[in-house]
């Protein structure tokens, strides 16, 4: 039987106490559901008991059945019951009895969460329009079917959903992979215009919010390896045409890249507008979508016409330009061709990353992964959206370069993505920053965070001096671009060594007009929204300790298999922290740091006549089992682990340095000290 909200228009309860009640009349039973922000279970149970008792006293069950059987409208029943509740003073008594005024005041005085990260359900605010997205279940999921059975004691593979909408991001809890994964989650999305989150949007305002909800599905293997399974966009505005303000739908999650036409599963979900607004006719929504599609199609058409003419002019300058790596469009996760400039946008990250070099380190920790096609065909090129890239924590070199360029632009640097080649003429992407005064040029390698100072050996194409041996790995340069500009290299040689980065010189660089680029890269274009970065998912201290304990156990088992006993030296393990901290600082700054103190500590701690050996290594994941399997392939590390002698003591230290999102630098040092026996 129909379920309806009796207390929808009760502002005292809705606006001030953030409680909403639903009374359901089904099979002659009244069920009461309370959704509230207060975690106190005793308060919740008390509220349920008190309200059920009161509804029983006023015989709400009989009144509902009689009203519905007699054809009475829902509005009439609601008004009658609301009137009785208000006159009885029951709501005031309930609030006083359970001290909800104090609970509310306490909640309001608590500090707000981090300005970057959105909580999965921060609380309904009835002074603003919001969209509640409830995922009920998943079904017909297939990406896990070829996985090996999970071994006893190992973690099972999991699915995680990531959502992005108008500057808000959400992450579901990881659930075990199965045909019907338990993906039950609720996400509360703010509906706002132009960043004004305090305005109560009316239905006409909501109609103009054309941004879609980006839903990304990521699979995580037991060894912490992640896989981008699906990247789907959901147009939520159909709910505006539903009288109840609630719509249940099923969306088909499609694969990515060359598999974007293949279904990987189905999500059942419900969309709800809170609080309800006026109803929008389906004809009006249909016309609005047609208008938006026509505008986007016209922008795309005009830009395509412009780029074709621009390309013809570029090839006419010099026939050899046809072999240079000048790329105007790139295919995304869903096989949609987008202008390369649209993959870059200034990105500020609050207090998550404090300087450009730290940003470069963060990007370098995201795993480099080349998308591949099935069979012996060449690798499949795919430029993932920024949201997909950071959610999966892996991607191709172009994704790394685009993210690093976006972060450097956010720090106010004059940054561009470079497309060219490196050794063996393989395509590559990196970032260049150009100084505003002296025109100093710095190359940033997004896969390693290395920086290279570029000093041109030519001016206006004239060789000044013989080029020095290049320290950077780049060979040729085809073009540079960011969100506002695109320049193709028209210098006599495309060798990076001779490249002059005077981008304003039309005899060296052919540019696109700013108007053409802004037509497809303006903030009004849906794909230009850059999702904010979130805080790390890791707790450094807890994770470091747990990994170290697990590694000690695995070392003991490994040595036992070799017929060796194991004794750990806690002081030596603690001492190794200095070296690991110095290594991470060096990766960020490029400067040696703290090595003298570590050398002095080793000299002072290791007894005379003893030998000290150590093996440091860094991983971009935090998985002890996977790390140990990797180090066993190193001859140097196995020599440390299989150490023999008199008074042998081993040490292991793990230092986890978390960055934004899932990026992490895990440093591990294995060490031993022993007295040699001649």
Automatic annotation (TrEMBL):
Gene3D superfamilies: 3.10.620.30. Residues 537-675 form the Centrosomal protein of 76 kDa C-terminal domain. It is found in: Cytoplasm, Cytoskeleton, Microtubule organizing center, Centrosome. InterPro entries: CEP76, CEP76-C2, CEP76_C, CEPT76/DRC7_peptidase-like_dom. Its main location: cytoplasm. Residues 382-512 form the CEP76/DRC7 peptidase-like domain. Pfam families: CEP76-C2, CEP76_C, CEPT76_peptidase. Keywords: Cytoplasm. GO terms for cellular component: centriole; centrosome. GO terms for biological process: regulation of centriole replication. Coiled coil: none annotated. Transmembrane segments: none annotated. Residues 125-276 form the CEP76 C2 domain. PROSITE patterns: PROKAR_LIPOPROTEIN. This is CEP76.
